[in-house]
Amino acid sequence: MYHKEKSIQIKNSASALYNNLGVLRIAPRRLTYFTVVHANVVNMVSASWDGLNYSHRQLQSKEPNVATSTSLITQAAFCALPSRDLLVVTSQKGIQMYESDGSIMVYWHALDTPETATELLCVPAQAVFARGISAVCESYICVGLSTGAILVFDVPSKGSNITLSDVMEGHKESITDMASECCGGEVCIADLVSADDGGNLCVWQSGEEFKLLNHIPGFDISCSSVKLWKGTVVAGYGTGQIRLYEAVTGILHAEVNAHARWIYSLDIAPFSGLLLSAAEDSLVRVWHLTMTPESHSVEIAHLYNECVTDTQICGAKFCDGDGYAFAVTGYDLSEIIRYTQS
Amino acid sequence: MSVRTLPLVFINLGGEMLYILDQRLQALNTSEDNSEKGVWSENDRRRVMNDIVGAMFSKDFMDELLKPQQLYSHRTLKTVLTRLAHASIMRLNQASMDKLYELMVMAFKYQVFLCPRPKDLLLITYNHIDTIRGFVRHTPVVVNQVDETHRKIIEVYSSLPEGEFQLLRQTLLIFFQDMHVRVSLFLKNKVQNPNGRFALSASGPVPHGIDVPGLIRMFDRKGREVSRSEFPTGGSYTSPIREGCFELHGDRVIRLGMTMYTGNNPEETHTSKASSVKKDDAPNLLAKEELNLLARLMGSMKAENTPETETGFRINLFTTDQEEEYAGASEGAAQSLFRVINIQAMQDEQAATQLARIAGQFAEGDKLPEDLSSSKGDDLLAMMDDL
Which UniProt keywords apply (chain A) (predicted)? Predict the structure, then answer.
């Protein structure tokens, strides 16, 4: 169904982090941007569609001051809003937002971490970091925290006057991933889903004040990656399972024993309903989701497997809305592997 | 990211170090008693093990490690591990320590990479502790220290959720990133490929608590299962093995963390760097936090065993002409490390005194005891050179 294309070499290898691949397609310029996190650096590649031009850039995590050690980055993701695209980078120390080509940092939000002075008592017993990034509808960017809180930023159509407008408390454990869908003209009830380390899912409705619509409990297993499509939550877990829930009601549509190890990345091609799952077991799988309006449910069928030999995959994303091509990153690999439909 | 990595890092890396030392010491001449000069006895070997294990599992040192804190650089780790090794009458030169560190790290990286579930990091740690307990079984005082530490680890880590273990594992994997040193034993056992990467198999038992892949189940709106189907997995997985024991004693079931070094074949520990490895030459400033940690860890260890009444045993674990050169080059790096520490020390009085003391001890430690002719050291060197 897919065949391997020429890989894109990146300057550093990918770190073992959930959802460690960002993709942004810029149709008017016939370019695609890719981002891969390596420790405290984000590797950005801009690839032209004709395969002839590649340009690289590296973004560093921001250090509050010289006395502290480097801040590890947990995630880098593109946020596509109607008026503009931004690149959001979350780390142990805070949240950075850049123009989508990585050229200018437009916003920095520091996390409330106690400075580690000479007294050790200041160091929290839990790790502190931000993780989980999603653009939501018209003008919001939501970012999760290790405390379980979710920060909501209001983003103007241009400029750097980004403001923190809300803090949502729905989770008690560290946020792992977040996803949204914008329904365009249709009436949309749920437009954001957030997942945490306990496998709990929260479904939200955006607005001046975000409203918690539903809470789907987990089974003490991390949900490491989550997607929202046509009102369905697609969640990947540390047990290698994928589950499909109806967002607003929490009804379980399907459960798949998809992988033999921890799932690290899920992605959906919204126009075709193709689903991509990737795990530490070195396998990438492609599935097809179909809505069945008669029974108000969603079905999932398996289409294709791809084994990336000896690699624990940490990022997998479709490169376009139809799922014609997808890209994969793996721990310790210094390349972005690409596949295209045959 | 995770603030709970240090205890596991030191126990596992320290464990790997002891496995290698044990293998090397077993390979030497033995004599029944201490009377023959220049020959290692069983007592000598036990003493080295007891000293290092005693230092590593000392209450003060472990208490420092157990405080929640970040995992810093390889340099800090190597410095502390060298100091631990020097808690015994053994002396390792820079080149030996560098190679030893590479071996230790590659072994632990392999274990962390292949760890079936993140929580199984504990079982790997307990495998190391079990074997270490065996090394010092003749000395009840040290066995007690090991047991006490083991109990503390159980207390601190047993209640951590799986997500926290995965964060810990991810922190370790980031720390070991881009290290692809080829170890001949791993290559021989086919756990490592010639390009330095570890082999990952798409077959075998799934980890405990995970279902064998292949099943799709669909449900109706009332939660009743309405269909089951299978899909081809592209691998051949089997049902999980039983879970290992997380108590003080018991069958750990998984074998990761047990020693891979058999008998006394020194060939096993030959290493070679993969071509694309980048050298950590730039003497980057140790952040203040990191220096403070280093000072606290060194301070919490027993005073270094500076052999005054007897000659120290100097060991070159892996000696080749190339490494003598390398030793020269890395001396330079070590010098710049001292320079960096001195500059930083001026900003913080407390750290300054402790670090000055430590830096001084390092400088002394590197000097060879003059009288080597009748020591076991010379014979050891000769023996190692022949390998």
Answer: Repeat, WD repeat
Instruction: Using alpha carbons only, give the angle B254, B257, B261 rounded to the nearest 5 degrees.
Output: 115
- pLDDT, one tens digit per residue, over B125-135 is 999 999 999 99
Q: Give the pairing of strands A223-229 and B90-92.
A: unpaired
Return the DSSP state at B85: H
Give CA–CA dist A140/A157, Å, rounded. Answer: 11
- Do B146 and B132 touch, CB atoms closer than 8 A? yes
Q: Would the CB atoms of B289 and A15 count as touching at under 8 Å?
A: no
Instruction: Calculate the alpha carbon distances from B275 to A224, B108, B304 in Å.
Output: 34, 21, 37
- Strands A22-26 and A31-38 come out as antiparallel
Tokens of B362: 């390092």
Place of tokens 């008669």: A294
On whether the CB atoms of residues B123 and B154 are closer than 8 A, the answer is: no
For residue A224, the one-letter residue type is S
Local confidence band at B281 (pLDDT 50, 70, 90 cut-offs): very low
Is the model more confident about A292 or about A277? A277
In a domain, B370, yes or no: no
Mutate to test the interface with B, among A147, A200, A257, A308 (most CBs of B within 10 A): A257
Radius of gyration of chain B (CA): 23
Residue A67 has its nearest CB partner, among B167, B193, B289, at B289
CA distance A115 to A112: 9
Given an 8 Å threshold on Cβ–Cβ distance, is A253 in contact with B288? no
* Chain B residues touching A299 at Cβ < 8 A: 218
In terms of Cα–Cα distance, which of B292, B2, B46, B378 is closest to B160?
Answer: B2
- In-domain check, residue B166: yes
CA distance B49 to B22: 8
Nearest beta carbon to residue B213 from set A72, A257, A312 = A257
b/e for B125-134, b at 16 or more Cβ within 10 A? bbbbbbbbbe
Residue B214: Cβ within 10 Å count: 17
Amino acid B25: pLDDT: 79
Alpha-carbon radius of gyration of chain A: 19
Q: Are the C-beta atoms of B176 and B209 separated by less than 8 Å?
A: no
Q: Quote the number of domains for chain B.
A: 1
Residues 68-87 (B) with a CB less than 8 A from some CB of A: 68-70, 72
CB atoms within 10 A of CB B31: 15
Closest CA to A152 of A233, A202, A96, A208: A208
Evaluate whether B151 touches B164 at the Cβ level (below 8 Å): no
Residue B208 maps to a domain: no
pLDDT in tens, A38-83: 999 999 999 999 888 999 999 988 876 655 667 899 999 999 998 9
pTM given for the model: 0.85
Q: Tell which of A222, A223, A304 to mutate to test the B interface (max B CBs under 10 Å).
A: A222
Q: Which domain holds residue B56?
A: 6-203+240-338
Does the distance separating the beta carbons of B198 and A17 come in below 8 Å? Answer: no
Instruction: Assess contact for B215 and A256: CB atoms under 8 A.
Output: yes
In a domain, B41, yes or no: yes
- Tell me the pairing of strands B90-92 and B313-315: parallel
- Chain B residues close to A241, C-beta within 8 Å: 211
